[in-house]
Amino acid sequence: MNSTSNKDQSEIIFGYHAAWAVLKDPDAPQKVNKIFLQKGLHSEKIARIIEAARSQHLVIQDAPKSKLDDMTQAGNHQGIVLTTTPFAYVDLFTLLKQLEKRHEAPFFLILDNINDPHNFGSILRTADAVGVNGVIIPKRRAVGVTSIVAKTSTGAIERIPIVRVTNIVQTIKTLQKQNIWVFGTDMNGTDYRRWNAQGAIALVIGNEGRGLSPLVKKQVDQILTIPMIGTVQSLNASVATGILLYQAFTSRESKSL
To answer: Which InterPro entries match (predicted)?
Structure first.
């Protein structure tokens, strides 16, 4: 969203699933500035968006496809574009207090300079699916929540808290002081299939090309690796994250079976 901010600081959400996730939120009237629908386009999804918008007294405007193409930088908007208030990142200590109040052991995902918005969006979908209760990203040298991230996540950004911090290493130290065990990923480490992910944990995923930054790697409590026997010795960041998160999910769920 924020990569396509307007002068009035509104941001862009586009595509049916991303838009629908926003409109289902009870706070939609406070978040949505305007809904743009492609002129002359009629579908069941458009009708559903219109019904939800009217029930919440939101402003709807018909617009030519060329305008929606321009607003989304030729993205696959499916005839639906929302302008919203800037994305609300969550404060880490507020999130920790909320989890403590609910008696939940933190299950965090830390992204160490992920740059591809499609990877970020896909990672958010998986994180939401396995019950991650907070994703932590750096403020600089990494993608934030953009319109492409919102669309790729198919609404996960509306369900999972996202924390943006100044320094990943310092944040890891803060989590460790809260008795949260922090795991990193690298080519050499403990086989992820032996990973006990129960209790309060955080998993750190490195940059698409460089992996974990050296200072982050030094700070984590344990390094995990995904064994590979083929000629390709690296996986796409979102694929690797999916494998590890589902191992964590299996480990954590086994306690209640």
So the answer is: Alpha/beta_knot_MTases, Ribosomal_eL30-like_sf, rRNA_MeTrfase_TrmH, SpoU_MeTrfase, SpoU_subst-bd, tRNA_m1G_MTases_N
